[in-house]
Amino acid sequence: MELDVRIDRIGESIGVLAGRLAASGFEFGRSHTVFPGPEAGIEGAIGRIERECGALPLALKLFWRRVGSVDFCGSNPNWTGCEYPDPLVIYPPSAAIVELEEFLTDKQERIRTGNPYVVPIAPDFFHKAEVSGGMWYNISVPAIADDPPLNDEWHETTFCQYLELAIRCGGFPGLTRFPGHNWPIAELIRGLPV
Questions:
Q1: Which CATH number among 3.40.1580, 3.10.50, 3.90.1150, 2.40.50 corresponds to the domain 3-73+85-189?
Q2: Ramachandran area for residue 160 (φ above 0: left; ψ -120 to 50: alpha; else beta)
Q3: pLDDT of residue 173
Q4: Apex CA 98: angle with CA 95 and CA 104, to 5°?
Q5: What is the mean pLDDT of each run of 10 residues along the chain (194 residues)?
């Protein structure tokens, strides 16, 4: 399947999931960031990152351009059995620019110590639950593949495979660690294109 078609299906599925979660009584933590669509200034952000650090992977650029960002952090008090559901979060390009600014203030030292620029994708599953955790999920730059590995994410998969896994879990891939949960996954994912 072509990568652009794959990203479009992912985006369509995320949009449907956002609506179904809201209709089910799920309380999003930040309603304005749930599924806002593409952010203004995408091309400028992509261009700047690529000039400073190297090529971004095609899958991420397509996601930012066609889907935007997503933030499924929140809860439903009736859904139990999962302490860390790892809600789907993909930062907008502005988060990558903030990290780029930090990297550029100490570029030589970071390169010398083996701490290169990486694109922040999402908080880790602890931070999503407002618990101190580890490194955020990220993608290495320059890109090594159109669909690159998603670093520091516990499924050890690629960016697109992570998105598809999250969708199959109703937007919460952490549920794979908690088989005794009562979350209505079958209802949430019924008929999704992914």
A1: 3.40.1580
A2: alpha
A3: 96
A4: 140
A5: 95 98 96 96 98 97 98 96 95 98 94 94 84 87 95 95 98 94 97 93
pLDDT digits (tens, 9 = 90+) for 49-106: 999 999 999 999 999 999 999 999 999 999 999 999 999 999 999 999 999 999 999 9
What ranges do the domains of the chain cover?
3-73+85-189
Are residues 68 and 38 in contact, defined by beta-carbon separation less than 8 angstroms?
yes
Q: How is residue 58 written in tokens?
A: 């095609």
SS (H, E, C) 90-125: ECCHHHHHHHHHHHHHCHHHHHHCCCCCEEEEECCH
Residue with tokens 């559901």: 85
